[in-house]
Each structure stands twice: as structure tokens, then as C-alpha cells.
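Quick note —
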Amino acid sequence: MWVLDVLSDIGKMSPIQIAILMEYSRLGKGPRRITEILNILSDDYEGLWIPKKGTIYPAVHNLHVRGYLKLHAIQPYGYSISDNGLKLIEEIMSNLEIQLKAYLKFMTNMLNHYSQINKKEAAKLVEIQQTILKEQIVALKNLLK
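Predicted structure written out below.
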């Protein structure tokens, strides 16, 4: 996420890497195979994003090299989140508000510019964005229950 480069000292971190870290963290300190994480991510994103081995494996390797994941070379084989990985998640989440504002600003700018090109289609996209945002608000409220 490009915002993280500005806000913290963690360097480049892709949304895929963040999703991977969150899953390893959520699953605890025990080792997990990459294929397990891949399957969880596939289910979580419900077809909106289909993770591929060619994306996930290098991302996990990068997280390991950077010290955010630990490799377990004895059975059960796999990776687990490191203490540095847990600290990184806390830092990422502390910047979440700014990241959300940046993404929403980007989408608003895109729609604004597109409305100057095709006002009718932009209006449809604005309605879609509003519907999606309303659904997200409901989903977030459900998290708090």
C-alpha cells in the first residue's frame, strides 16, 4: 500500500502481503502451510480476488526474508508470524484511517474526472460506489456486535 511508504518506515508493503500477514496472525503462532493461507484468502474474497501461487509464494518468501514470518523447517512444515510481524500489523492498523481516506479520495477523483468524459456513466458508477460503501458500513457495524 503506497500510503504506508509515506506514513511509516516499513518500506513497500503490498495489500497481498498485508492480507497474508493478517491470516498468519489470526491463525496464531503455529506453523501454517502456504496452501492453507491461499485457500483461506480465496474464501475470504469470495471470487473478487483469486490468489495465485505465483503471487502468494513470492509474497510469503519476501515477508520471511524481511523477518515478518518465521520458517519452520521441521514437521509440521510451514510459516508462522514473528514478533516483528505482529508489530507490523499494529503499525499498519494505526494508519488505517489515513489509508481509507486516501483510497476514497482516489476513487472520488477518478469518478470526478470520468464525469467530465462521460457524465451519464459516471453517475451510474457513483451509485454503485455509494451502494458498496453502504454495504461496507453495515459489515463494519456487524463486526462490532
